[in-house]
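debug: dumping io for the single-chain case to check the tokenizer round-trip. Nothing else runs in this session.
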Amino acid sequence: MRTCGSRANRELSRRASSRASRRRTIRSGRPPSHESGAGAAGLDESRSVYGARALELRASDIMVRRPVTCQPDDTITRVMAEMTRQRVRHLPVVEGGRLHGIVSIGDIVKHRLDELETEANILREGFLARH
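debug: decoded output
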């Protein structure tokens, strides 16, 4: 019979902790890191807390090396779907290997709220004009 302190349970716990740490490292939102200055080299998508060790780390130690990206001509619907599918809050906008900008979930929400406000105003004006 195995106890909670068994070698197998410790190994499973270590693996689960490692997977959770990698997931935290992939899913969050910090600005892109540039190793070479050209293009998006990686993103730190983590909410991890590094403690006292944080001051010793470099961006390259914690960034995602191959971030999911979008292109300037991608639709907002596609960008929203990709953010949801990949569970990220920022997508670098890359064209020809060069970083053009970053789309954040906040940008998407603001755009969508502006669209809804415009739509509501048009409907309100149309309703008032008929009555």
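debug: round-trip ok. The chain has four helices and four strands.
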